[in-house]
Amino acid sequence: MSIRGKACIAGIYEHPTRKADGLSLAQIHAEVARGALADAGLSKDDVDGYFCAGDAPGLGPMNMVEYLNLKPRHVDSTDTGGSSYVLAVGHAAAAIALGKCSVALITLAGRPRAAGQSQVRPAPGATADAPFEAPFNPVIATMYGAAANRHMHEFGTTSEQLAWIKVAASHHAQHNPHAMLRNVVTVEDVLNSPMVADPLHRLDCCVISDGGGAIVLVAPEVARSLKRPVVSIRGAGEAIKHSAGGRIDLTYSGAVWSGPRAFEEAGVRPSDIQYASIYDSFTITVLMTLEDLGFCAKGQGGRFVADGNLISGHGKLPFNTDGGGLCNNHPGNRGGMTKVLEAVRQLRGEAHPAVQVPNCALALAHGTGGSLGTRHGSATVILERQ
């Protein structure tokens, strides 16, 4: 079964906070739900499908459905880390296509800044991988640094090329009043920032922020009754890449599988995409994902992102025009949600005028959750303005 054209995004909302002192996770979920439903012109009583992930407090959908006073006939709490909310769009579209629900609400909330966050991975638990990896005390940045080093070794990618990704994000973030980092930076600024995990500098890393977002998906017949621009789900793909018992190749991501699945369902090619939201936990995440989605050949990502090729109005492929995780926000360490939100703004023509892609009709959003150095989830959605 294909989900192409069988579900539409009718409402979106991004929480403006970047540090949620005084707000609970449940409150943030509720506030973004209210915002997205208002954007769609719907109420909570219209919702018959609810989607969340591991950031939801308590027992996930059970606690949140009660807190929001919803009465869904379909729920889904699949958790693939940062890719969860891109994946949820595909799952919600499938549920609508199957008739399981007709108005699906997806909510995200996180407050790692207000609550405090450690960069050290949790102590070994019940997972089978923990006894093999935990003795090395891996932290998030070092695992991405390992992937960057391998890519440089195999393909000659340089720190200067990675820095261009941050430069492009900063050019976009200057127009976002909510972005945490609004100053435009240069390649030299990135290279001169402190080394965090060789070869990644501080400005190669995303911000840590509180906040959240929500999306309302509806059946096409519901979308036609609403007074909002219609953004249709054209295709979706998902995949899990794991460490294969240690026989892992660090130079590619799960996007090599999720991307082609999404493009096949959508019936389009990478060259048709006018705007791309790419998960940007680190600059290397963007570079590898662009290659794996087919925007350039494997090993050519460095050349592709250099010289401002990702800057809206200047380059060939505008990306993350809200400033992305590198400059804007990364709520709850699950940046997939905001990737979808900015893609919808672009398709509606509601991005900041300085970064709006003219006549944007086809956009892609991609999420990466987990770690490029070990195991991660990948999710890709292709969206179209009707």
Automatic annotation (TrEMBL):
<dbReference type="Pfam" id="PF22691">
    <property type="entry name" value="Thiolase_C_1"/>
</dbReference>
<dbReference type="InterPro" id="IPR002155">
    <property type="entry name" value="Thiolase"/>
</dbReference>
<protein>
    <submittedName>
        <fullName>Thiolase domain-containing protein</fullName>
    </submittedName>
</protein>
<dbReference type="InterPro" id="IPR016039">
    <property type="entry name" value="Thiolase-like"/>
</dbReference>
<dbReference type="GO" id="GO:0003988">
    <property type="term" value="F:acetyl-CoA C-acyltransferase activity"/>
</dbReference>
<dbReference type="InterPro" id="IPR055140">
    <property type="entry name" value="Thiolase_C_2"/>
</dbReference>
<feature type="domain" description="Thiolase C-terminal">
    <location>
        <begin position="238"/>
        <end position="384"/>
    </location>
</feature>
